[in-house]
Design goal:
heme oxygenase (decyclizing) activity, heme, single chain, disordered C terminus, Heme Oxygenase, Chain A, 0% strand
């Protein structure tokens, strides 16, 4: 039988990638999500974790859920409250209502799992949210700090797991616990399907911010960064050309070496490098693996 952790990863691979390609994530990685927009995004996260952590707590005595129940290490409500106050001010709780359609859809999905005859489906939501926070979430934290010049340790509490010394080791342990979950094949299938649904719920959350991201110009910092990338690629091109010339000089007397150089088609290499300089704004996608 395939391990549950593997089934979850393989079963959600496509939707995981789709979430990463969403407009919100694209703008986030480019540093174009404003602090105000991010503050509202935190409200959505708070609604999700409020529902999820209540459901997990209610079912903490379930033998299968207990395997992946780590409230002290993983709970995100308190860190979210710190970030919500940082970005939205002391009255941030006023933003909790009205609940948006995507927020309600996500909350309902979690509550439906909790009230069903198979609450083990909550495993899927823990897998999607917490392993995502420990993986790609760490990349998002760096982007958030980089593009917003945040004070040290401010605004990124959500991504900081104070009681986890090594994220990779914890994730490995979590996956091993997933593989220890003992349920019928039917329930395993339900868990995998629920994980797919959770990714769809996240995509819906992202989509609620699309209208706020349309047509945003590059920030000055982004423009300067792109210029720095261009200069770096120009320098790399010059270094590559110089190295190529030196190699040609070193091997000028050797017909065998000359044949090798011809096979490498340096002119093609030159054109490829030149193309990279002309079009520096190639999107860099950082792989986010749950």
């Amino acid at each position: 039988m395939t391990l549950l952790a593997v089934e979850l990863k393989e079963g959600t691979k496509y939707l995981h990638a789709e979430a990463g390609r969403s407009k919100f994530m694209k703008y986030f990685f480019k540093g174009e999500v404003s602090p105000a927009t991010y503050g509202r995004f935190l409200v959505s996260l708070y609604q999700i974790y409020n529902a999820l952590e209540k459901a997990l707590d209610d079912h903490k005595d379930n033998a299968q859920l207990a395997l992946i129940y780590f409230p002290e290490e993983l709970s995100r409500k308190k860190p979210l409250e710190e970030d919500l106050e940082f970005f939205n001010g002391p009255d941030w709780r006023q933003l909790l209502t009205p609940i948006s359609p995507a927020q309600q859809s996500y909350i309902s999905a979690i509550q439906n799992c909790a009230s069903s005859k198979h609450p083990e489906r909550l495993v899927a939501h823990s897998y999607v949210r917490y392993l995502g926070d420990l993986s790609g979430g760490q990349v998002l934290a760096k982007r958030l700090q980089k593009y917003n010049d945040l004070p040290e340790d401010k605004g990124v509490s959500f991504y900081h797991f104070a009681l986890i010394e090594d994220n990779d080791q914890f994730k490995e342990m979590f996956r091993k616990r997933l593989n220890q979950i003992d349920v019928e094949d039917e329930v395993r299938e339900l868990i995998v399907e629920e994980a797919k649904d959770a990714f769809m719920r996240n995509i819906e959350i992202f989509a609620e911010f699309d209208s706020q991201l349309e047509g945003l110009p590059l920030s000055k910092k982004e423009q300067l960064e792109n210029l720095a990338v261009l200069e770096k690629e120009k320098a790399e091109l010059a270094a590559a050309k110089k190295q190529q010339q030196e190699q040609e000089q070193d091997t000028a007397g050797s017909s065998a070496s000359a044949g090798l150089l011809a096979s490498l088609a340096p002119s093609n290499l030159w054109n490829s490098l030149l193309g990279a300089v002309r079009y520096p704004a190639v999107e860099r996608v950082e792989r986010v693996e749950a």
